[in-house]
Structure formats: structure tokens, C-alpha cells
Specification:
Elements: H1 16-49, H2 53-90, H3 95-120, H4 123-129, H5 134-148, H6 151-166, H7 171-193, H8 202-227, H9 229-232, H10 245-279, H11 281-317, H12 321-348, H13 350-355, H14 366-398, H15 403-427, H16 433-458
């Protein structure tokens, strides 16, 4: 099959309304898909909790290590969106380069995966060295090891989803994510509790179920891409073992800073729970509940921001400055509106929100509930700044600008937000609320700096640099 060389520049909407509709058409399904995917881990937690507290604690420890690697490997996955979007913006029929980007991203994932799987063999030793209970560490080690086999497939699914998003195909992927989530629940039921002739594997069964659902999900996405009329013509696995150094180099140059940026943010929240743990068990539990609420809310603007990266990438590829400005403005507005869907009711009804996670009637929960109710108003401000920074960050990625955002987020989170959280929580009378004030301060500075960086690029006469990373 021959790839067309005719240049067909993508036509962008000429009005604000048209751009907002284009953003929502791909952004709403992407946001819902992120929302559903969040529930995979929520459902896992609920089902593992039925085994016992030791298994739940082991799963929590194991997931800290697992998600550390998830964040580290996320860079090549996220790099696919701007690379393909700008390619298709410049020429919507550039099948060859698009295929190479997808293929090389999957290459990187599966080449790195064996290293991760090998490291997980030492999870128990790492946790024991850090002073964790030996029994719980042993369970966590087995859980992470079997879970590790599913990580490359989970990341490969994200590559395929980002490829489809760049083609503005997001509704069917939403349905497929829902299908994979349902499959994960069924497999959990079979492997955790031992049903349909399968032995009861408890926590290890949860890891097997997740890995299998990721693997099956990958092949479901492949099948869809091979059968869909538009995606089939890209032949993304044609000459799969042929290396393309140009595209591989671009993925690594973009992916490295993206991974570090993701780690900067993700590790901040992990360190925050350690600070809470130094204050007390109740405070740590309340932090976890509040963070779950904030994380759930974050899925909506995160999905919208990913759509924004696609839209501004298409505009950059088409070298349409005005379209890029419209894409940026509508994305920021959409992300703020999306977070408010959850932030407003959370701030108005904190007790009802807390009751979704904790039984208000149990006296043992009263201290945690009071702490959560105190944290939620601060978390509302935290959510607002989080929506702005993720919008600006993703829009900059859509313009292939990744090095400056990495530096700015590092400064915001670790040189500004973390010291404030530590000092307020442990060195003043502010106490546990100080952690949330510190996190909010870090996100506020990040939103200001990243927005400033975005505005500086958008206000330049010619800020597109196709094929380069700044």
C-alpha cells in the first residue's frame, strides 16, 4: 500500500464557537475515559479490601512503586499526541510519519518493560529496607511482580488512544475503556476470590486480573484500529521491526522531559502523605480521602487538556497562529469549567462528600471526617489551580515545548510548594492543613509560570518550530 504524498493541510475552525465545539467533541469522551479508568483502581481497592486490611496495605505500598514506574514511562506515551497532531495538521494524509511515531513509541515501551519487570523482583527487599512490615512487604512484592507484566500493554493502549485522539476519534475508545473496566471487575471476581474453578489467589489474583485486562485491552484496540476505515489505512504495524531513528529520537527527546515533569508532580503527593504520617494516622487517612476526591475531580480537566493538546498541535502543524490562540483559550476555559463540576458541590457539601468514603455513623471515623471537612475547602482552591496548570502544561506539549515546563514545574513543586507544606505542617501551629496550603501554593505558582510561558509563545509572531523541541 502506497502512502500519499499530497499535502492536505488540516482546516481549523475560524470561530470561537467552532473551536469550542471541536474541543468538546473529542474532550468530553477523553475526560469520561479518564474518569472511568480512575475507577479501575478504585474498584481494585474495594475488592482487595474485602480480603483484609493486610492485603489492602500491601496493595497501597505496591502501587506506590508501580505508579512511580508508570510516571517514569509515561513520557514516550504522551509525546505521541503532539508529534502526530502536528504531523496531521501539516498534512492530514501523512500516513508514513504517523505510523512511525506510533510504532517507535510502542518500541520504547516494550524495550524498557523487561528492566521494570526485573526491578520488581526486589520490591519486597526495597520495602523491607524502608522499614515496612515483612509480611506486608512480601505480599506487595508478589502483587507488583504480576502487575508489572501488564504495564507495557497498559502504556501501549495509551499510545493507541493518543493516536486515535489525534485523529479526533474518541467515542469508540471511550466505549472500549468501559469494556476493559468491566472485564477487569469480572477477572477480579474470578482470580481474587477463586470462582469458576480458578483457585483463590487473593492479592496476587488482583494483579493477574489487571495485567490480563490490560493485555486483552491492547488487542481489542488493535482489532478496532485494523477494522476502522480511517485508521486501517495507516497500517501502524506495517514493517514493525524496521527502526526509524528520526521518529525514535523525537519521541525520546520529548518523552524524557515529560516523564520528569510527571514525576515532579506525582512524587510531591507521595511525599505529602509521608508528612501527614509524621503528624498522625488520622491525618494521613484524611489526606488520602481528600486526595482521592481531588484526583477524581482532576480526571475531567485532564481529559479536556489532552484534547487541547491535540487541537493546538493540529493548529501548529497547519501554522495557523489564530487557531492556536483559540485552541489555547477554549482549553483553559473548558478545564476550569470541568473542575468546577465537582469542586463547587464539594465545597458546598463537604460532609456529604466525606460520607461517600466514610461511614458517618461510626464514631471511630469522626476524627477523620472532621479533618476531611476541614481539608476540602482548601482542596477546592487546589483543584482550580490544578486545572489551569494542567491546561497550560498540555497546551505547551502540543507545541512541543517540554524543557521549560519541566524546569518551571520543578521550581514550583519542590522549591516552593514542598518547603511551604513542610514548614507549615511540622514547624508551625497550622498543622495538617499546612500540607494542603503548600500543595495549593505549588500548583498556583505552576499555573502562573506555565500560563506565562504559554502566553509568551502565543504572542510571538512565529512561534511554531515543527520537528524541534524547545
Amino acid at each position: 500500500m502506497k502512502d500519499t504524498k499530497i499535502m492536505h493541510v488540516t482546516q481549523m475552525p475560524k470561530t470561537w464557537t467552532g473551536e469550542m465545539l471541536s474541543l468538546l467533541r473529542i474532550g468530553v469522551p477523553m475526560a469520561l475515559a479518564q474518569f472511568i479508568q480512575f475507577f479501575i483502581f478504585f474498584i481494585d481497592t474495594v475488592m482487595i479490601g474485602r480480603i483484609g486490611p493486610e492485603d489492602l496495605a500491601a496493595a497501597g505500598l505496591g502501587l506506590v512503586i508501580y505508579f512511580g514506574f508508570w510516571m517514569l514511562f509515561s513520557g514516550p506515551v504522551m509525546a505521541v499526541t503532539p508529534l502526530i497532531s502536528q504531523t496531521l495538521g501539516k498534512n492530514k494524509d501523512d500516513l508514513q510519519k504517523t505510523r512511525h511515531y506510533v510504532r517507535m513509541a510502542i518500541w520504547v515501551i516494550f524495550l524498557i518493560a523487561p528492566i521494570f519487570i526485573f526491578i520488581t523482583l526486589f520490591t519486597e527487599n526495597i520495602l523491607t529496607f524502608l522499614g515496612q512490615d515483612p509480611v506486608i512487604s512480601a505480599k506487595a512484592g508478589k502483587y507488583v511482580f504480576v502487575l508489572a507484566f501488564g504495564l507495557p500493554f497498559a502504556l501501549a493502549v495509551m499510545v493507541l488512544r493518543n493516536f486515535l485522539a489525534a485523529l479526533e476519534k474518541t467515542f469508540i475508545p471511550l466505549l472500549l475503556v468501559g469494556l476493559c473496566t468491566a472485564l477487569n471487575v469480572i477477572l477480579n471476581y474470578i482470580f481474587i476470590f477463586g470462582n469458576f474453578g480458578v483457585p483463590r489467589l487473593e492479592l496476587m489474583g488482583a494483579g493477574i486480573a489487571s495485567s490480563l485486562s490490560y493485555c486483552i485491552g491492547f488487542f481489542i484496540f488493535l482489532y478496532y484500529i485494523s477494522k476502522d476505515k480511517r485508521t486501517h489505512k495507516f497500517q501502524i504495524f506495517q514493517n514493525f521491526f524496521s527502526i526509524k531513528f528520526t521518529q525514535l529520537n523525537e519521541i525520546l527527546r520529548l518523552g524524557g522531559p515529560i516523564s520528569i515533569t510527571t514525576l515532579f508532580e506525582g512524587m510531591l503527593f507521595n511525599v505529602a502523605i509521608i508528612i501527614m504520617g509524621l503528624i498522625g494516622v488520622m491525618e494521613a487517612a484524611a489526606y488520602q480521602v481528600t486526595l482521592n476526591i481531588a484526583s477524581l475531580a482532576f480526571m475531567l480537566p485532564y481529559g479536556m487538556s489532552m484534547a487541547g493538546a491535540v487541537r493546538i498541535g493540529l493548529a501548529a502543524g497547519a501554522r495557523d497562529n489564530e487557531a492556536a490562540k483559540r485552541a489555547a483559550s477554549t482549553t483553559v476555559i473548558a478545564c476550569i469549567c470541568a473542575i468546577m463540576i465537582i469542586a463547587i458541590p464539594v465545597s458546598l457539601y463537604p460532609e456529604i462528600t466525606a460520607s461517600l468514603f466514610l461511614d458517618l455513623k461510626k464514631e471511630v471515623n469522626s476524627n477523620v471526617i472532621n479533618l476531611v471537612i476541614g481539608f476540602l475547602p482548601i482542596a477546592t482552591g487546589f483543584m482550580l489551580f490544578d486545572s489551569i496548570q494542567v491546561a497550560a502544561n498540555q497546551l505547551l506539549r502540543g507545541l512541543k515545548d517540554v524543557n521549560w515546563p519541566m524546569l518551571l514545574t520543578g521550581i514550583s513543586y519542590w522549591l516552593f510548594g514542598f518547603p511551604i507544606a513542610y514548614i507549615l505542617a511540622l514547624k508551625t501551629d497550622v498543622g495538617p492543613k499546612g500540607v494542603w496550603y503548600g500543595l495549593m501554593a505549588g500548583l498556583a505558582l505552576a499555573s502562573i509560570l506555565l500560563s506565562g510561558r504559554l502566553l509568551s509563545k502565543l504572542n510571538k509572531d512565529n512561534y511554531f518550530s515543527i520537528g524541534s523541541v524547545k
